[in-house]
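Onboarding guide, step 5: your first structure request.
Type a short instruction followed by the sequence, for example:

Predict the 3D structure of this protein.
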Amino acid sequence: MFIELTNVSKIFRNENDLDYQSLRDIDLAIEKGEFVCFLGPSGCGKSTLINLMAGFDFPTTGRILIDGEEVSGPSIRYVTIFQNYGLLPWRNVRKNVALGLESQKLGKRERNERVDELIRRVGLTNFGGYRPHQLSGGMQQRVAIARALAVDPEILFMDEPFGSLDALTRMAMQEEILTLCEAKKTTIVFVTHDVDEAVFLADRIVVMTPDPGRVRKIFRVTLPRRRNRASPDFLKMRDDVIAELDFIKKNCS
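The system replies with structure tokens like these:
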């Protein structure tokens, strides 16, 4: 397996020296090129788990391996996109997209060509000189995606990246991330609260329970792409996932 989590637990200590267990005994394996969505109520540790996989924090117990190597910190091999986009406000679109390329040994011409191509692919060709505050939320998210893809990552970690977007822009971005990543077979680990989004995007949906966060159930989504959100099979899968979340809400509150 490409990403392996074995007996992963995470305990935080607050300012009063009281321990809070965010995650307990997470065992999970993710295949190369797989799109995995994490769903669950607030407090189930979804964001904590993605931070551990991305190397921003470390498990209290257990191990996380990527391609056979234990995660010891962030890497250019895997990139994280957050809900707030993380764009540098003093840089324009072109310079934001080029950020990750600046540490690579690329000639100026090759770097510029790659930036131009990615900006074109996300539909922002006419906005290269704009700064983030001059762009809509959807456009800023497209810049963040282009910046992430510029370094050709093997894994894309996405923590509720579309949560602040309106419904139509959100659906357009879901289509866009699939199109941009399918050709490269990028492995995607995606946190969301939106059941429809998970069913539309994922190969597997990992449903988690809170206090502490554990894996409750994993749904394998076998619907062909592109998925019709109004089809009976899509609606059946969505209802099954919602029923699982309702069970968690009733029994874990």
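Each response can be followed by summary notes, for example: The longest strand covers residues 19-30.
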